[in-house]
Amino acid sequence: MAEFERARDRGLLKRFQAGDRDAFHEIYEAHQRAVFRFACLMTGDSIQAAEATQDVFVWLVHHPNGFDPERGELGSFLLGVTRNVLRRKYSEQRRWAPLDESAADMTSYRDHSDRAAEDVDRLRKAVAALPERYRAVVVLCDLEEKTYEQAAAVMECAVGTVRSRLHRARELLARKLVGNGRRCAAV
Amino acid sequence: MINHRLANAIKQLKQETANAGAPSWVEAAVKLEFDRVQKRERMQRWSIAACAVAVAVFVLMLVPRPKPASAPTPAPQPNAAAAPEQPFIPIPYVAPPGPYERVEVVRMDLPVAALLSAGLRVETADPSGFAQADVVVGQDGSPRAVRLISIQGQ
Fold first, then answer.
1. Residue boundaries of the structural domains of chain A
2. What value of ipTM does the predicted structure carry?
3. CATH architecture of the domain formed by A1-97
4. pLDDT averaged per 10 residues, chain B (length 154)
5. Residue B145 per-residue DSSP state
6. Surface-to-core class of residue A94, CB atoms within 10 Å of its CB (0-12 exposed, 13-18 middle, 19+ buried)
7. Is B29's Cβ below 8 Å from some Cβ in A?
8. B91 to chain A nearest CA, in Å?
9. B5 inside 8 A of chain A by CB
10. Considering the entire predicted model, what is its pTM?
11. Into which CATH architecture does domain A112-187 fall?
């Protein structure tokens, strides 16, 4: 399946580099969900996620040769671009936008009637409050079901680093889930 | 227990976001940008082609014009018999003569450098020399094609 997707992406990329609009549309359709979901879970804000998704594909339009198919998968590459876009946005906004407000955005419409739903809300907030290196690894490995190798490619780090960060991130989330949020946020 | 709760919450959050996708305005904006970039690149390609044509025309303007037909340059024709069957080579980036356009063939001495810069292949080790050539001249006096006869100064 992965091979099929890789071959498909390679063909689409060639056509896109030659200026084929349909190929670009197909690339967008194939990857926009993953990019948006990743951005959404990283920011906890659907508007910011949409803006980041737009930035990622606009970047691709301006850098059609920015991805080398020999070096990995287009999907992982785009998530790496998304991460960089979000980092830049975050560093621009952190001076005046508290993270908790943005995290509240997605949870406002949720029904808190049962404990499971409450846990999901807490988890969402806890993920949004994690330091970026832990947040990215949780989103990629636990929520996006990427392999350690794929996550390492996105995060540009070693597989061992992904494992250790994921372990630490799960600990932080588990603590946050039972109400030790202050200690987690301070990490 | 805690890990179980965490695993459940992760599973549920995964399900909730499984079908999430970017809103349609993102797609519209991205496609608009794609079209804009493509249009800009097309314009750049045309500009480059136009510049190349302009340069070629400029170079051709530097090539010595033939004298009036009544008094053409009386060039010696020592090698004329040696290569009479050479085809005329159209000068790049110059429109070919019209179907009813009257043209003239004038034999003249041309700087090899001018022929080279006009894009014609001249096999010589000395680009500062002169070449004897038949030039097809259009009604407007501009050269259209060249047939190389011989290279002097070698």
1. 1-97, 112-187
2. 0.70
3. Orthogonal Bundle (1.10)
4. 76 82 89 90 86 86 68 50 65 76 86 80 80 85 83 66
5. E
6. exposed
7. yes
8. 31
9. yes
10. 0.59
11. Orthogonal Bundle (1.10)
